[in-house]
């Protein structure tokens, strides 16, 4: 990684020479300090608004709180687009408590890859709603990210009570040159509508054009399913992947479509007709029962049966089909449960996403709806829930936030948030036991998933509050303690109120803000 420059005069010299440092706003020279004894550079010059003690006093553009550590406040103090294609995010982390030191690096690390040594602010990112992707800091050769390094930048392991530090990340700018974006961290709920400045940032930061770097992006997959469980659709903003239930389409061990399949085929053909598809792939899949000698030919015959039915129903020419059978080799879910096996018995139809039909704007409901609460118990302690908001984001996305409070007199664990019926959709525990339903359309929306490439294929993480790894104690509540959780969903364009089911709490009809 290029060295960061400590003094303004040195910075200007390097910037003029075009060496590895992004342009910056001029800042007043920092107070004289003694550099730490290290061969690596320490921190950059503090921003012009820093106090004599080095505290960053810039006004916050947005803020959130850590779900796991209630005294950790997270504020965006800088969000600058550089060269029209890069983004510099600066995040102030504050310890608002009075008696405990807070460790920050573990909380700010990217949870979608091995953290290695926990000392990086690698989890700072933005949500590119237009491209349906989650953007993370660039990765250069030899380090996890173009971001703050606890050791190199002399940040220390802890934040003292009443003190703050400012960390940064350099990442791709969201597509479409938006004026605002959603800033995401592993710490707490996403921060919405954060303004992006096209002015040079305050401080010095490595230039991603000065050395080879790899953009790290996570595709955001938004699943939904019909209430009759006949099909499940995954939308990544580019393609639709429609998983048709083999239990509805076929009799056991058969490849002849049932009478019930007629309406499912018609609905799927209508989607293909409305899409720009010239090639549609149809893939048959089985669960782990039986063996390859049975599953492989059966899954192919079923794919071919679906292909034939769809081809006959299309109202336009120019669509070519590709049918394949994968047997049990590509499960979407664990085969350790009946529900997982049921979902794995499917025929998957994949094609470019249809363009949405023009819709009249949906009237949004102003905040202030009442009665969005529920109660349950955990280990005998009363647990309360309150929906904080269901907000519509660009790109057909929605953000659900809700608060959980231990109203009892003893510490307790509340684990129902990660005990979803189809928990096996996620490899890691997260607050995935949440469903949003469009009652009128008879369609249920599942929490979004972040698709992460691996050496063996892909992995999936819930686009919601994480409760595993370093955040494993997130579901542990002291008496009177409140934590705020979140989930990303697809939202239907025409709805203004949706039914929300959070863990064991009662169903709520929540207005979209």
UniProtKB/TrEMBL annotation:
Record's subcellular location: Cell outer membrane
Q: Which InterPro entries match?
A: Bact_OuterMem_StrucFunc, OMP_bac, OmpA-like, OmpA-like_sf
* SUPFAM superfamilies according to UniProt: OmpA-like
The biased composition feature labelled Low complexity covers 34-53
Superkingdom in the source lineage: Bacteria
The residue stretches assigned to a coiled coil in this entry are: none
**Composition skew (Polar residues), residue ranges:** 362-378
Q: Which Pfam families match?
A: OmpA
Q: What name goes with this protein?
A: OmpA family protein
Name the species this protein comes from: Nonomuraea cypriaca
């Amino acid at each position: 990684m290029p060295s960061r420059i400590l003094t303004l005069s040195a910075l200007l010299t390097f910037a003029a020479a075009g060496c590895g440092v992004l342009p910056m706003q001029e800042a007043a020279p920092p107070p004289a300090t003694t550099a730490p004894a290290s061969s690596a550079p320490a921190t950059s010059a503090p921003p012009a608004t820093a106090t004599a003690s080095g505290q960053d006093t810039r006004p916050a553009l947005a803020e959130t709180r850590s779900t796991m550590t209630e005294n950790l406040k997270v504020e965006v103090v800088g969000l600058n687009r550089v060269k029209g294609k890069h983004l510099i995010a600066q995040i102030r982390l504050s310890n608002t408590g009075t008696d405990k030191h807070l460790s920050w690096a573990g909380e700010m690390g990217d949870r979608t890859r091995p953290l290695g040594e926990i000392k990086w602010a690698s989890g700072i990112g933005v949500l590119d709603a237009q491209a349906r992707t989650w953007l993370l800091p660039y990765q250069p050769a030899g380090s996890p990210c173009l971001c703050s390094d606890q050791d190199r930048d002399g940040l220390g392991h802890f934040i003292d009570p009443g003190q703050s530090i400012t960390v940064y990340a350099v990442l791709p700018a969201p597509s479409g040159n938006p004026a605002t974006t959603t800033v995401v961290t592993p710490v707490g709920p996403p921060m919405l509508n954060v303004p992006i400045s096209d002015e040079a940032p305050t401080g010095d930061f490595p230039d991603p054009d000065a050395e080879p770097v790899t953009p790290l992006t996570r595709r955001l997959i938004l699943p939904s399913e019909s209430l009759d469980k006949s099909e499940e659709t995954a939308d990544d903003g580019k393609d639709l992947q429609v998983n048709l239930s083999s239990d509805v389409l076929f009799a056991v061990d058969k490849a002849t479509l049932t009478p019930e399949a007629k309406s499912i085929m018609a609905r799927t053909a209508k989607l293909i007709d409305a899409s720009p598809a010239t090639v549609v792939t149809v893939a048959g899949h089985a669960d782990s029962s039986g063996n390859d000698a049975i599953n492989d030919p059966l899954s192919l015959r079923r794919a071919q049966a679906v292909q034939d039915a769809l081809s006959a129903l299309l109202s336009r020419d120019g669509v070519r089909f590709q049918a394949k059978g994968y047997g049990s080799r590509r499960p979407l879910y664990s085969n350790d449960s009946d529900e997982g096996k049921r979902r794995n018995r499917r025929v998957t139809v994949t094609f470019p996403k249809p363009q949405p039909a023009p819709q009249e704007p949906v009237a949004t409901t102003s905040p202030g709806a009442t009665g969005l609460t529920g109660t349950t118990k955990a280990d005998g302690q009363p647990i309360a829930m309150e929906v904080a908001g269901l907000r519509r984001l660009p790109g057909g996305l929605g953000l659900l936030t809700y608060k959980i409070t231990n109203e009892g007199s003893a510490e307790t664990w509340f684990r129902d948030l990660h005990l979803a019926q189809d928990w096996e959709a996620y490899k890691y525990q997260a607050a995935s036991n949440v469903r949003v339903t469009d009652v009128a359309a008879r369609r249920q929306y599942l929490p979004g998933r972040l698709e992460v490439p691996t050496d063996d294929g892909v992995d999936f993480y819930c686009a919601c509050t994480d409760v595993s790894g370093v955040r494993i104690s997130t579901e542990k509540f002291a008496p009177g303690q409140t934590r705020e959780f979140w989930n990303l969903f697809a939202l239907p364009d025409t709805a203004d109120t949706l039914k929300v089911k959070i863990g064991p709490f009662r169903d709520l009809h929540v207005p979209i803000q």
